[in-house]
Design goal:
This protein is an alpha/beta fold and 239 residues long. The protein has seven helices and nine strands; from the N terminus they run βαβαβαβββαβαβαβα. The strands form two sheets. Strands 1, 2, 3, 4, 5, 6 and 7 form a seven-stranded mixed sheet that branches.
Length: 239
């Protein structure tokens, strides 16, 4: 077993692919999480990184190897995975490396109700299981089912915030070729919103800029688009 110290962080699992994280290890992590969860069903989603589909399949296979079913929600943002966990009251796993460079990938885990899993709430136990080995399981394998929850997620968000009486808003969104390009067109589909999209094409190589919004260099195009986007003239208030 490889050294997991640098792979299993305080709040997630994250490393370079394939030298730190590959399909075989991801399968074992999925099996360990399934054993730890004690659930009947686990939701699994993944982002658009090049390695994500393979890792998501491996993680799901690890789950079903322990007799637990999988709800495969496919391409998803992390918040959509949390919605799946909360709305279905099941644990979840999101295959993503968040804002890290293309060579990275990782896994964010949560328990039923989208309760996060960190070092003190499950990651330490998973690392121990990977090091010592899981108990033998010789029962039937679990099954996998697919489900697209994005429409339900959008409907839920629209129920929280009504834009019926709102003035029309022009919003510039830089998706950075990340998952916002997948979720934003559905979640923000409203007559009150005029969306100006930047880099909505899903591309795990991040050809335009890194997906890290904390780096000012990655906000140059967004700032330029905001400053040049046509704006409606606001009525002058009478005094």
């Amino acid at each position: 077993m490889r050294d997991l110290t640098s792979l299993i962080k305080a709040y997630d699992i994250r490393g370079t692919v394939p030298d730190q994280l590959d399909a075989r290890l991801t399968y074992q992590i999925g099996a360990a999480f399934a054993h730890l969860s004690g659930a009947d069903l686990i939701a699994v989603g993944h982002d658009m990184r090049v390695s994500s589909p393979e890792l998501a399949d491996a993680f799901a296979a690890g789950i079903t190897s322990r007799g637990i079913d999988v709800l495969a929600i496919g391409l998803a943002s992390t918040d959509l995975l949390y919605f799946a966990s909360g709305s279905r009251d099941v644990p979840g796993a999101m295959i993503t490396a968040s804002h890290n460079p293309p060579a990275y990938n990782g896994i964010k885990l949560c328990r039923a109700g989208a309760r996060p899993v960190g070092q003190d709430t499950g990651l330490t136990e998973i690392r121990t299981l990977l090091a010592t080995g899981l108990p033998t399981y010789d029962g039937p394998a679990g099954a996998s089912q697919s489900g697209d929850l994005l429409p339900s997620y959008a409907k839920y968000l629209h129920s929280l915030v009504s834009l019926v009486s709102s003035r029309r808003l022009k919003i510039v969104i830089d998706a950075g070729n990340g998952m916002a390009g997948h979720t934003a067109p559905v979640v923000l589909d409203d007559p009150a919103l005029d969306i100006v999209p930047l880099y909505f094409d899903l591309d795990g190589t991040f050809p335009n800029h890194e997906a890290n919004p904390l780096n000012p260099a990655n906000l140059v195009d967004l700032r330029a688009a905001v400053s040049t986007a046509p704006r409606r003239c606001r009525p002058r208030l009478r005094r």
